[in-house]
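re: the backbone from monday

yeah here it is again, tokenized this time
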């Protein structure tokens, strides 16, 4: 492998003796360290295709394991357990459990795109990291992130009315994430908006909040759109 990854070996698989002599040779300490073998049988042959079906993971099959992504990674510099090259390797082999072991750090990608810019095969590792995070959310392996909850609230309003009302999206998002609507930044924003907003436009905004307007002739369009999205997801996941 291109990168020294002893840190990825489970501690319980490392065997060593503080004091050991073999055939008259003192091999005490780290000289006698051995790694117990491990046989992997839980391959998922369809896993790579599942990740490719998620936006960002389309090019994961191009990886040739050069290690450029991890060597350039901002997060790897802070935590050597954050390893895009290894996770892409695991995706291609269908080793889901290996990725799930790192579910608490995969999402920490900061989207600096250093990995994507340096990748010689256009794998777009940053996109793969996001695809893995979304996969774990969809499978219930990790909790939904605030950004996912916001996207869902936004989409639900589109389905229902063919348009969004900013205040409704905000209230729905705060309710689902357990946040208070009485936040200081929102109070300041509202006061400044009221101070400079034309009265007629302010009345229109207020009416939209109360009336929840729909796009003209929306009818069953939302239901049809929702069904189409559901079918596309089912097709993508086989």
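seq for it, each position gets an aa:
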């Amino acid at each position: 492998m291109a990168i020294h990854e002893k840190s990825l070996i489970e501690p319980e698989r490392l065997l060593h003796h503080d004091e050991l002599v073999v055939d008259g040779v003192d091999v005490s300490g780290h000289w006698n360290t051995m790694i117990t073998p491990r046989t992997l049988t839980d391959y998922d042959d369809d896993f790579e295709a599942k990740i490719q079906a998620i936006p960002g993971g389309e090019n994961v099959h191009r990886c040739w394991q050069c290690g450029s992504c991890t060597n350039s990674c901002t997060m790897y510099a802070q935590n050597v357990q954050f390893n895009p090259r290894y996770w892409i390797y695991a995706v291609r082999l269908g080793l889901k459990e290996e990725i799930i072991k790192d579910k608490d750090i995969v999402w920490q990608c900061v989207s600096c795109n250093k990995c994507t810019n340096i990748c010689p095969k256009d794998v777009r590792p940053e996109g793969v990291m996001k695809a893995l995070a979304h996969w774990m959310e969809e499978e219930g392996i990790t909790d939904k992130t605030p950004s996912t909850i916001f996207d869902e609230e936004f989409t639900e309003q589109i389905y229902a009315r063919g348009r969004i009302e900013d205040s409704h999206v905000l209230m729905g998002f705060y309710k689902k994430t357990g946040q208070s609507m009485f936040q200081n930044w929102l109070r300041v924003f509202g006061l400044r908006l009221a101070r400079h907003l034309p009265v007629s436009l302010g009345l229109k905004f207020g009416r939209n909040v109360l009336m929840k307007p729909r796009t003209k002739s929306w009818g069953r369009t939302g239901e049809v759109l929702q069904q189409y999205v559901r079918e596309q997801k089912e097709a993508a996941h086989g």
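The chain has a mean pLDDT of 87. The radius of gyration is 25 Å.
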